Amino acid sequence: MKFYFLRALGAATLGLVAGQALAQGQVTPPASVTPGLQPAAASAQQPTHHEHNENWSLHFQQTVIQQWHNNLQPRYAGGNSLQARENAKLSLTTTLFLGRRLWKGGAVYFNPEVAGGSGLSGATGIGGAPNGETFRIGDPAPQVYLARLYLRQLWSLGPSEEEDEDDLNQLKGARPAKYLALNVGKFSIADYFDQNSYSHDPRTQFFNWSLMSAGGWDYPANVRGYTVGAVVEYVQPGLALRAGVSSMPTDANGPTLDFHYDKAQAITAEVTKSYAVNGHPGAVRLLGFRNQAAMGSYNLAVQQARGLGTMPDVTAARAERRTKYGFVINAEQEISPEIGLFGRFSYNDGHNETWAFTEIDRSLSVGATSTGARWKRPTDRLGVAAVANGLSGDHRNYLAAGGSGFILGDGRLDYGLEYIGEVYYSIDFPRYHAALSPDYQIIFNPGYNTSRLPGPVHVVALRVHVEF
């Protein structure tokens, strides 16, 4: 891992130099790599000049995270338990964001990506894993893969226009204030759904999995977080409706996507209402989802094990078509130009096997972020959040009987909610388009187990992020 750390730091240094040479001024990373919905009070709705349109967009990001936890004294352990002692773990992602305007309203986006490293205990043992930049992949060696390749087409539904800045997967130029959009190809479904200005991006905001996305949303993705499908958007000032159909992996948390949409698919829909309170923007989002795949039934796995006198195995209780339903309520509110609040509640029925994201069936998160303006660091960011994660009755009975999923499996379970607290501080270096972020997380009952560990887990981390 030392070799990967040195190589990553070397690449980060190259990114710093390139960023300084190619761009000037401050970079403010967006919460998403796709155009988002602006509050009605912030919408300019003024005609713009099309000669300001640009046909190309080129951006780059690199994120390196080093993470460590204290030595533990577990009373017992299973195959997917958080390890008692382990070396610090390092993760690296590097992404190129290339966009090209094709015709009026049409553009194509291409994102090759390199990722390497490992999460703590191989990203197992905790429902809300502490590093959103890691994947549950055995080989820590950096690998090149296609993250996104998709077509985006907008149709204007009115004469008013707004000006988009050149950004990640966003071309500079005029955009209709009211439009219909179709996005088709390979992307992350989280590019379009469950957005939150304060808690959505582990490269610039909170690190924890259950803070970068709604924990109870088993969102469709391969092991690296990407899917293939289509998303339709209807957007007007103050309101957005989105719906999408996308592919599920062929196996739980697997690398290969299943393109037999008649048997396996995810349907996601969301309504976003933005508003302003005394001039301060806010938004509320309601998301619903239904996933279908060859999931195993937790109850059936336990019944089969009792009949055979063995440990339950959910993979042996799979059927060709099973479903998972759920919803997310997601809110954010600016209190002042320096301070914002957010919260999420998410739920899924939890009858069948977790298939894509992580083993969380219910989750509640709340938090606040602040700029450093009060201490004369206006581009710095401070974030504080708390999370409570839980499991369905079927899921907890399965783990208590000795079963394992792809994230959890201590061999037994004395159930309790998993509690997580996180605080990070992002030190911004605008001249170099970089930020350095120390992070601390405290985790009670990791894996929902109240008796395995005598105390909480303390996780400390340092993140280096370069973007231009």
TrEMBL record:
This protein's name: Carbohydrate porin
Superkingdom field: Bacteria
Record Pfam families: OprB
Disordered as annotated region, ranges: 27-51
Family of this protein: Belongs to the OprB family.
Keywords: Signal
Signal sequence interval, chain numbering: 1-23
Organism field: Hymenobacter bucti
Keyword check for Glycoprotein: no
Keyword hit for Signal: yes
